[in-house]
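tool_call: predict_structure(chain=1)
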Amino acid sequence: MFLYFWILRLAAFWGHKKARKLVQGQARALSELEEWSKTLYGSEVLWIHAASVGEFEQARPIIERLHSELPFRKVLLTFFSPSGYELRKDYPLVDKVTYLPFATKRNAKQLVEMLPLEAVIMVKYEFWPAYLKELEVKKVPTYLISAIFRPAQLFFKPWGKGYLRLLHAFKHIFVQDQASADLLIKHGVKQVGVAGDTRFDRVTEVRKQAKDLPVVEGFVTGAERVIVAGSTWPKDEEMLARYMAEREGVKLVLVPHEIDAEHLHRIFQLFEGRYVRYTEATPQSVSKCRVLLVDTIGVLSSIYRYGHVAYIGGGFGVSIHNTLEAAVYGMPVVFGPTWKKFREAHGLLKAGAAITVKNYREFAQALDTALANKQQMGKAATEYVNSELGATEKIYGAIF
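tool_result:
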């Protein structure tokens, strides 16, 4: 942990923006929490911790239910990642948002003693030894939600026994599937139950609240083959540019993961400037264009409703992005080869609602197949999402 801390500090010193935000945020977190604790006046605190944006979306249905039914409960939300914190630092349904103080024994002890914690909820992959040990010592009920476990994880290796023991610090672990529950029970962790993944509930709610986007509607009007490419990275964009050059009668809504000037210039070169930018368009000006480049954030989940097929970016890098945001609209999804850690990707593939690809040849074939079979595959996507609903109710009911 200390080695990691100093690596972060060095990266921050040499100008790495994300590392700098993380180091600065963690450094001020304890003092912020100390000041906030003075305003509690004896109220107990429910602490919810999410690593980043994706884990927050898994916690969000629980937070919204709490706000609706128990509005006077004090809720603390912490993030590890700057991307999560920056996006949700003003989230109105909790009382305090901050970074997780760096996970040393001293910081963990100070935080747990400082705050009158009623309970703690951690999301999916958050196993900070210093915090779990201190919470266990102080007998604070701690829960893990939307978790998923695989045999290859450190807990289940001969040299991972110390980490396996950490799991006993949780009062209850709510896992996504029976395979995870069976694996934990096999290794002596018995306070476990299958609840599913709260993201299915979340994306269903997001679909109900989808925004009307006149520019996108003007772009797709009359089109019979529309691809929405969400959270794309350079490798994804290279293949999309080639595909659009080789196909007629297809429209593309391109939503890059990063929209800084350098990335947008690279996209300009790939597509040879043959697109219209969302922020410069009107519903009338885009009707005859083939490519709409979305150079703003916060609209992807609403854009999917206008497409026929979704391509999910990131699969040729670290991992695919959110497939459920698209699947909830009843559309086929296509993604790259880095997907095996995601249970929902397995589920969509098994249901016949998704296709995974390893190279451009497979990429082009997959998009052609999905466009040709969009109704059948889209129906499979809808049925799969609906079959997985209800995790929020199970978790909320069990804890509260």
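agent: The first strand starts at residue 45 and ends at 50. Proceeding to next step.
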